[in-house]
C-alpha cells in the first residue's frame, strides 16, 4: 500500500529554490533513507511531507487516515528544566504510565521514565525522541538525522533499533542520514538529494552511483575511508554526549570531510 506520493514537487525557501521537481513514493513498511549534503533540501522535503511546508509546485498525496510520527532535526531542551523522560513523552498529550513504559520498551529504553532528559546519553536521548514519535502508533515514522551527536557504534545501534521498530510496528520509515555506509543495511531504498533527486535505488546502487560519489567526494574506498576517519577521531562514547547543548552545533557533516 502506498502511503505518500510526492510528484514533481518544487519548493522555495525565501528566494532560494530548495527543491526542484522531486518525485518520491513511500510504501507501507519500507525504510527509505535520504542522503545529501548540507542545504540539499532534505529537511525541507520532510517538512513538506508532514504538511508543515507547502510546495510551490507539484503535489503530495497522503493515504487517507495515515498517521505520521515526526522527529525534527533539532530539538532544544533547556538543560535547567527538570523534565523527566516520562513528562517529555506526555507532552503535549498526557500519557498513562503504561503508555510511557510501553513506548520506552519499544525503543530499547526501558526504565528511563524518571531520568531527566538533560542527563541522558546521546543514544538514550534519541531513543526517547523515537519513543515520543511512536506514541500515536504512526503508519509512517519521519526522522530527520536521528543519529545526530552519536558516534559510529551509537549510530549503528540506533539504526538497528529503528529497524526493530519497523519490524514490531509495521511502520514505514523515512529518515535523513549523512552516513550511508552505516545506514545501508537498515535501508530498503536510498534517495540521494541535492535540490533535486540525483539518484535513487538500493543502498548498494546509490553508494556506487557516480552522482553520489561526486556529491560526497568519495573515492573507490570512500565509504571505508569515512569509516576509518570516524574511528580515528571519535574516541568518546555515547554517554559522554551532553544533549542539552546540541542546538545547531550538533550537526555533523560527514560529507564535507
Ligand atoms: P538540509 O536539511 O538538506 O540541510 P534544508 O532543507 O534545511 O537542507 O535547506 C535547504 C535550503 O533551503 C538551504 O539552502 C537553506 O539555507 C534554505 N532554507 C531553509 N530554511 C530556510 C528559510 N526559512 N528561509 C530561507 N531559506 C531557507
Ligand atoms: Mg536538514
Description:
- There is one protein chain.
- The chain has 257 residues and is α/β, with parallel strands linked by helices.
- The chain has a 6-stranded mixed beta sheet, sandwiched between helices.
- A hairpin with a 2-residue loop joins strand 1 and strand 2.
- It starts with a strand and ends in a 24-residue tail after the last helix.
What is the secondary structure topology, with strand pairs?
Elements: E1 2-13, E2 16-27, E3 31-35, H1 42-50, E4 57-62, E5 68-71, H2 85-89, H3 97-106, H4 122-134, E6 140-144, H5 152-169, E7 172-176, H6 180-183, E8 189-193, E9 197-201, H7 203-208, H8 210-216, H9 222-233
Parallel strand pairs: 3-7, 3-8, 5-6, 6-7
Antiparallel strand pairs: 1-2, 1-4, 8-9
The structure holds adenosine-5'-diphosphate and magnesium ion (MG).
Adenosine-5'-diphosphate (ADP) binds at residues 13-14, 16, 18, 36, 38-44.
